[in-house]
Write a structure and sequence with these properties.
Blueprint (H helix, E strand, L loop, with lengths): L8 E6 L5 E6 L14 H15 L6 H9 L2 H4 L3 H18 L11 H17 L1 H20 L26 H10 L5 H10 L3 H5 L10 E5 L6 E5 L2 H9 L18 H12 L8 H10 L13 H14 L3
Antiparallel strand pairs: 1-2, 3-4
Length: 319
């Protein structure tokens, strides 16, 4: 007998080895189900997920976390952003799922949340702790706007991470080494990244129709903004010489558009032994701000500091 399960959702992903895999969920943005459809394990996993959803207690943070994941605010986020949020929301549920919403107005609650962030920083790193804090703050802000909670104790929490990414910025030597060692089909992705500064996902979806010989036009998936980028001479030469094997500009060795996972796997493999620097967007920003500056040297400090030094030099100059 066939059993129809209500609300099932699925997604397909191409793995690094090229195989296509289907993942089943109890509902959209719901928990991942175990087993294959139609098997007893699959049905038991679905029933367990539905039972948990039906018995979600009210008046606790868990209800707010699940409400946010079912909201349009959450669904409108990029796929990669949603995946990152779900992983952190799961950690928040384990720690504060039964925390009463009435306790959010207590002044001690902020200290409890900050102590949790400190523990995350010790175990998972400061950047991950800041990310988790910002997700919790966003969920509570969403709930506050809808009258579901009376306070958001995570506002203006500051950041723990103060590191610099200067050691991750590509230099001329890194660029030359990569172009020398990497497969030819990865050269154009590198040049596009360095000369446009756009995100990987946006470049992997970029069609040839977005290039008119002088400009690249695209819509950023994260911000929704439409941007127009003037194409520099090295990138123009590479684009004009590239074979158009698909309507999509960037293709793999088989001439097919990249999947996100497939591209990351190939990129990591090509980078191995050529340095771990991956901040091409910082390099692109430096190139755009001052194309005459040698890219192997970082730009000076913050703008205010440079202006202050210039004013000091002007004031102390002999008259």
């Amino acid at each position: 007998m066939r059993v129809r399960l209500k609300g099932l959702n699925f997604s397909r992903k191409r793995l690094a080895d090229g195989t296509l895999r289907t993942y089943w969920y109890a509902w959209r943005n719901g928990p991942l189900l175990r087993g294959e459809p139609g098997t007893p394990e699959f049905i038991a996993s679905y029933n367990a997920a539905v039972a948990i959803k039906a018995t979600t207690p009210q008046g606790v943070i868990l209800s707010v976390l699940q409400g946010y994941q079912a909201s349009e605010d959450f669904r409108s986020l990029a796929d990669s952003t949603r995946r990152g949020y779900v992983a952190l929301i799961t950690r928040i549920e384990k720690e504060f799922g039964d925390f009463p919403l009435s306790g959010l107005t207590d002044r001690r609650t902020r200290g409890i949340f900050m102590a949790w962030r400190d523990r995350l920083a010790s175990n998972s790193g400061r950047r991950q702790a800041d990310y988790a804090w910002s997700v919790l703050a966003r969920v509570l802000s969403w709930a506050l706007d809808r009258g579901l909670v009376a306070a958001n104790p995570c506002t203006h929490g500051g950041r723990l991470y103060r590191g610099s990414r200067a050691d991750k910025i590509w230099t001329d030597a890194d660029e030359a080494t990569f172009l020398e060692r990497a497969p030819a089909h990865l050269h154009l992705p590198l040049l596009l990244a360095l000369w446009t500064g756009q995100r990987q996902g946006d470049l992997l979806r970029l069609p040839w129709s977005g290039y008119d010989g002088r400009h690249i036009r695209l819509r950023q998936s994260k911000t929704g903004r439409r941007v127009q980028i003037r194409v520099g001479a090295p990138l123009k030469a590479a684009l004009d010489a590239a074979p158009r094997r698909s309507t999509i500009m960037l293709t793999n060795n088989d001439g097919k558009p990249w999947t996100s996972d497939g591209f990351r796997a190939s990129w990591r493999k090509a980078q191995h032994g050529g340095g771990d620097r991956d901040d091409h967007r910082a390099l692109a920003a430096r190139r755009a701000l001052n194309p005459r500056r040698p890219l192997s040297r970082p730009r000076p400090g913050a703008r205010r500091q440079r202006h202050r030094q210039a004013r000091t030099a002007e004031m102390t100059r002999p008259r």
